[in-house]
């Protein structure tokens, strides 16, 4: 009896050892119609658990894969996981439909946190129904001839100069809706001529770019991406259990068990697994150089009008950036590395390698580059039209319309999200500054310029006698010991936070000598409890804004600590900012760092204002130049000096 019990117990233990986490099993990629290997951020309703995908990315599988956006149903024609694009076709117009009149079409409104149009040639097709007026002969070409109703159905492009005439004739009783279409070649022009080709145009579909949390780090660690809907955050589903970002290393024994369990699971799902592998290889096979397109010098010369100075968007220590327009209509930013920069090949390859292994909604996308053997090294990025955060805070754009506090808070959260993602990917940016934070038209962040970035595993103990960075943002500890850590980015981000609440530049030689460095000035103001001298009055004086700006000032102070060990991690910074933004003061003060004496004191009984960190051992701001020397004053705070 004991023998049988022992055998039963052994097999029970054996079975449990080989069982995989249910979330991991539930999120295996699945097919729907012609769309293969549907996986995060999408999930198939009824076939995959909602935790396998991002909210708003639910796919309904009924012969074809369908996605619903703002009340419209779209057929998914293609999903490109390599660059987060998908092609959609309005389900109201399907090839096998024979109805003479278009089905109900609703206006499409995109959630800017989920989708944006993915092609510069995307336009709007305007449908005007119940048109009771009599169109003149020259406007009859816009009516849908096959639709025989008492009142006309009219279709035209939204940029058509006759649109206003048609809407005026159709009268107030008519109804107008718009749907996106992608135009290229002469199809759109033919539509304007006779109005009978609107189906042809709509059947072409259009491209959308999705902005869901990237999951490359999770995938590369052997996990499957998912979403925790309770805490509303990304999760990496691993064979053992869910993790925050990636599957953590396991012991040899556990690895053996997990490997065997995965093997059994893979054998059970052999057919689907082979499809997934084939799909992955197809993506890799489409790569040309590090997975991005190669452009010829002549093509980029033509796109930038021969690198005309009128096309310049900006320049820096390593190259000039030009506005360009490719032959396919895409607007791009082309970085031309300086000829005299002896490290240009290294920086070129460094930026290409880093950007091609990363995908995050708040990191600028790399479209391609020239060959590294080209006479000139050129990098081609997506064009971000709304300038830099620096320009909006203390540049020309600031004079036109200052950034509102909600937008500044949004910028802080999204920048922190991008940097936390970089650090989770074991990459240090090394040049975090407001000039490297771009904004699109919705004030969404795109962190740029990875020429100085480094991979952590190889360079964490790297020593350089000539640290590169931007004065005012350089980690003073890095200047002292020349060691690269992720806390260097945290320091630089602390300066960015001060810029966001003060609207002042990181370095300003017009300020008094002791306040040329914004970081040093901020430390001084915070220690003196004189935040009213630091915070930009344009932000307003309402109690909620005041509370939030003071909380951000406290966080910035912690980021600016001289000792890197007392600074929070970038992930802790992100969570703290989210707490300020979304949950009032609930999360304030919960920063999980060993801050030594840099702790939050109790509020003063005389005032409701929070008193911020008045005593620390040593606090030093970034040197005015990377070669500036530091001399202790013996007072616990050091002052930068310059030679000469």
Structure notes:
This protein is of the alpha+beta class. Among the domains are: 293-382, Phosphorylase Kinase, domain 1; 460-641, Orthogonal Bundle (Transferase(Phosphotransferase), domain 1), CATH 1.10.510.10. The protein is 31% helix and 20% strand. It has 19 helices and 27 strands. A seven-stranded mixed β-sheet has the order 3-4-5-6-7-12-8, with no helix packed on it. Helix 13 runs antiparallel to helix 16 (487-502) and helix 16 (487-502) packs antiparallel against helix 18 (543-559). The radius of gyration is 28 Å and the shape is globular. The N and C termini lie far apart (92 Å). ATP binds at residue 335.
Give the helices and strands, then pairings.
Layout (H helix, E strand, L loop, with lengths): L1 H16 L4 H5 L3 E3 L2 E4 L4 E2 L13 E5 L1 E6 L2 E9 L4 E6 L24 E3 L4 E10 L20 E6 L5 H8 L4 E8 L4 H8 L3 H6 L2 E5 L5 H5 L3 E5 L4 E5 L4 E2 L8 H17 L1 H16 L7 E2 L2 H7 L8 E4 L3 E7 L5 E7 L6 H13 L9 E4 L8 E5 L6 H6 L1 H5 L4 H20 L2 E2 L8 E3 L5 E3 L6 E2 H4 L16 H6 L5 H16 L15 H10 L15 H17 L10 H13 L46 E4 L5 E4 L3
Parallel strand pairs: 3-4, 16-20
Antiparallel strand pairs: 1-2, 4-5, 5-6, 6-7, 7-12, 8-12, 9-10, 9-11, 13-14, 14-15, 17-18, 18-19, 19-21, 20-21, 22-25, 23-24, 26-27
Shape: globular
- Radius of gyration from the CA trace? 28 Å
CATH class of the domain at 460-641: Mainly Alpha
Distance between the termini: 92 Å
Quick synopsis:
The protein has 644 residues and is an alpha+beta fold.
């Amino acid at each position: 009896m004991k023998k049988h019990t022992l055998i039963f117990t052994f097999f029970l233990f054996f079975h449990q050892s080989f069982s995989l986490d249910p979330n991991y099993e539930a999120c295996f990629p699945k097919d729907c119609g012609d769309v293969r290997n549907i996986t995060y951020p999408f999930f198939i309703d009824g076939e995959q658990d909602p935790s396998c995908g991002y909210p708003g990315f639910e796919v309904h599988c009924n012969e074809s894969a369908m996605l619903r956006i703002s009340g419209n149903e779209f057929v998914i024609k293609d999903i490109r996981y390599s660059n987060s694009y998908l092609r959609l076709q309005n389900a109201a117009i399907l090839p096998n439909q024979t109805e003479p009149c278009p089905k109900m079409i609703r206006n499409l409104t995109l959630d800017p946190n989920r989708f944006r149009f993915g092609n510069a040639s995307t336009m709007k097709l305007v449908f005007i129904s119940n048109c009771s007026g009599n169109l003149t002969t020259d406007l009859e070409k816009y009516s849908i001839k096959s639709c025989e109703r008492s009142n006309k159905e009219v279709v035209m492009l939204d940029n058509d100069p006759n649109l206003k005439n048609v809407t005026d004739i159709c009268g107030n009783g008519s109804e107008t809706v718009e749907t996106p279409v992608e135009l290229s070649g002469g199809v759109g022009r033919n539509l304007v001529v006779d109005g009978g080709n609107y189906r042809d145009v709509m059947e072409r579909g259009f491209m959308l770019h999705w902005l869901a949390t990237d999951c490359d780090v999770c995938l590369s660690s052997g996990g499957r991406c998912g979403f925790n809907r309770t805490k509303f955050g990304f999760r990496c589903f691993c064979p053992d259990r869910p993790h925050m970002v990636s599957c953590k290393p396991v012991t040899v024994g556990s690895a053996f068990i997990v490997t065997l369990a995965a093997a059994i699971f893979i054998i059970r799902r052999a057919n689907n697994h082979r499809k997934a592998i084939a799909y992955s290889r197809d993506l890799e096979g489409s790569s040309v150089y590090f997975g991005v397109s190669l452009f010829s010098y002549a093509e980029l010369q033509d796109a930038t009008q021969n690198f005309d100075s009128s096309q310049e968007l900006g320049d820096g220590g390593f190259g000039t950036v030009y506005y360009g327009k490719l032959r396919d209509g895409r607007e791009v930013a082309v970085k031309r590395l300086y000829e005299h920069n002896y490290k240009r090949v290294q920086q070129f390859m460094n930026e290409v390698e880093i950007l091609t292994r990363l995908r995050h909604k708040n990191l600028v996308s790399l479209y391609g580059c020239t060959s590294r053997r080209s006479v000139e090294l050129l990098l081609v990025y997506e064009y971000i039209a709304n300038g830099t955060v620096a320009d909006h805070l203390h540049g020309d754009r600031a004079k036109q319309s200052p950034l509102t506090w909600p937008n500044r808070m949004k910028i802080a959260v999204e920048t922190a999200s991008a940097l936390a993602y970089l650090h989770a990917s074991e990459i240090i940016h090394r040049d975090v500054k407001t000039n490297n934070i771009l904004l699109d038209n919705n004030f969404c962040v795109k962190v740029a310029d990875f020429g100085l970035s480094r991979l952590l595993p190889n360079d964490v103990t790297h020593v350089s006698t000539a640290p590169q960075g931007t004065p005012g943002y350089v980690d003073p500890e890095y200047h002292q010991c020349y060691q690269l850590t992720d806390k260097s980015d945290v320091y630089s981000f602390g300066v960015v936070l001060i810029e966001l609440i003060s609207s002042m530049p990181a370095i300003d030689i017009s300020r008094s000598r002791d306040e040329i460095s914004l970081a040093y000035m901020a430390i001084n103001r915070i220690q003196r409890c004189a935040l009213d001298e630091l915070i930009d009055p344009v932000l307003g004086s309402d109690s909620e804004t005041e509370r939030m700006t003071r909380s951000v000032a406290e966080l910035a102070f912690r980021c600016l600590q001289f000792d890197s060990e007392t600074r929070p991690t970038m992930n802790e910074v992100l969570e703290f900012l989210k707490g300020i933004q979304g949950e009032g003061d609930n999360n304030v003060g919960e920063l999980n760092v060993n801050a030594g004496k840099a702790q939050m004191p109790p509020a003063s009984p005389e005032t409701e204002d929070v008193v911020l960190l008045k005593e620390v051992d040593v606090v030093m701001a970034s040197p005015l130049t990377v070669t500036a020397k530091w001399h202790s004053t013996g007072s616990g705070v050091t002052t930068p000096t310059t030679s000469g």
